[in-house]
Amino acid sequence: MPRSSDTLWDIALAEISKKNENKENEDDLEARERSVFFVGNKSGGKTTITLRFLDRDEVSKPTLALEYTFGRRARGHNTPKDIAHFWELGGGTSLSDLAQIPITVNNIRSLSVVLVLDLSKPNELWSCMEKLLSVTKNHINKTINELAKKDSIKVNEIKQRTWKMLQKDHPDWELVDPFPLPLVIMGSKYDIFQNFESEKRKVICKTLRFVAHYYGASLLFFSNKSESTISKMRTILNNLAFGTDRSKTISVEYNKPLFVPAGMDSLSQIGSPPVAEVELSKISARNPIDLWKKVYERLFPCESTREFKEILDPAKDPQYAEPEVDAMRTQKDQELEHYRRNASKLWKEMELDVRGK
User: Fold this and answer.
1) Average pLDDT of 24-41?
2) Averaged pLDDT for residues 306-328
3) Torsion sign (Cα): 200, 203, 205, 208
4) What is the overall mean pLDDT for the chain?
5) Rounded to an integer, what distance in angstroms lies between the CA atom of residue 91 and that of residue 65?
6) CA 257 → CA 11, 189, 205, 325, distances in Å?
7) Phi and psi for 71 in degrees, rounded to 5?
């Protein structure tokens, strides 16, 4: 209740403060929703990571195309549970166009991206990372542009959140190009990677540190057999999915699993690309990321583009087996093949008749 000594200005300030307090209380009573989109190598461990995070005792199965699940977390006693939506893109890079489905105008402000890279396959690492980040970024930018037509203020909020990871006094402020949404790069199968030769591990660690820092992303290595990496994975995903506090610890020793929260690394600590200075001066590159790519692919050349072309046939996937349906499908396939042979024979006979005339 206003006092007699209060001015009109004092009363107005008190009313505004009260309204803001009421709004905050209302927000606390409403469930918050966030979305996390997983992309990465085929059979790279995305499903395993999601199930481990959600504490689900299930055997992970290959993701056919695009799969969805969710998790809940209570903020406190007698409060609604926050909801996290998890989307997982299967097939590696072969089905990357499906990335447009989880990226919408409705969830773009609460969406994060997790790129899972299989550390046991260093020769596929860069091409997979480049393809998936490019496709995902294009879909994100299209969605942001669509949102800008309706609400430019919300778009500014997205941009501010992106740059918030890097403080303005950071020495690399003008040298990086942050991803448009919060990004985590997770190197999986660390238990295999740790047995690589020392120099190979050093090059891969250094390269991924640069890529993560350049895109304003968090970086961590994960193994389902290592409790310490599982704990750090939970910390990172809890922050993305439920808005818990970010970790401030950092580990950049290449003989240990990397853990580098966004904005906590620097180009001076990462150093130059792992190649002799004489050779480095001979490499022609358009930008820093292109330079690191050319150096990395000299050491780990891309062996095959098979993953880009491979598209799975659900009818041949054993996890979707249906005896009656499969038997009918086999019968129809045989009928189709019989028809093709007869049609081919008929056309050849007609062609001979025409030539004979």
Assistant:
1) 73
2) 62
3) negative
4) 83
5) 6
6) 57, 11, 9, 47
7) -140, 160
**Residue among 239, 266, 235 at smallest CA distance from 252:** 266
Question: How is residue 307 written in tokens?
Answer: 């993953």
Kindly report which listed range (90-99, 236-245, 266-275) carries the lowest average pLDDT score: 90-99
Of 103, 121, 243, 242, nearest to 189 (Cα)? Answer: 121
Rounded CA-CA distance 224/240 in Å is 20
User: Does the structure show a pLDDT above 80 at 332?
Assistant: no
| Phi and psi angles of residue 67, each rounded to the nearest 5 degrees, phi first | -120, 155
Between the CA of residue 74 and those of 71, 79, 110, 153, 245, what are the distances in Å? 10, 7, 18, 30, 15
What is the dihedral angle through the alpha carbons of 321, 324, 327, 333, rounded to the nearest 10 degrees? -90
pLDDT at 345 over 90: no
CA 200 from chain centre, in angstroms, equals 24
Q: Is the pTM higher than 0.90?
A: no
Instruction: Name the H helices within the chain.
Output: 8-29, 46-53, 122-148, 152-164, 190-193, 198-214, 227-242, 267-270, 277-280, 288-299, 306-309, 323-356
Chain centroid, CA 352 distance in Å: 58
Burial of 191 (0-12, 13-18, 19+ CB in 10 A): middle
Distances (CA, A) of 292 to 101, 141, 268, 312: 31, 24, 15, 32
CA-to-CA dists, residue 89 to 47, 98, 132, angstroms: 10, 7, 10
Angle at 311 between CA 46 and CA 139, to 5 degrees: 65
The CA-atom distances, in angstroms, between 332 and each of 156, 313, 315, 323 are 56, 16, 13, 14
- Token digits for 166? 């890097």
pLDDT-based confidence at residue 232 (cuts at 50, 70, 90): very high
Supply φ then ψ for residue 16, to 5 degrees.
-65, -45
Which DSSP string corresponds to 282-322? T---SSHHHHHHHHHHHHS-----HHHH----GGG-GGG--
Q: Tell me: pLDDT of 12 over 70.
A: no
| pLDDT of res. 270 | 95
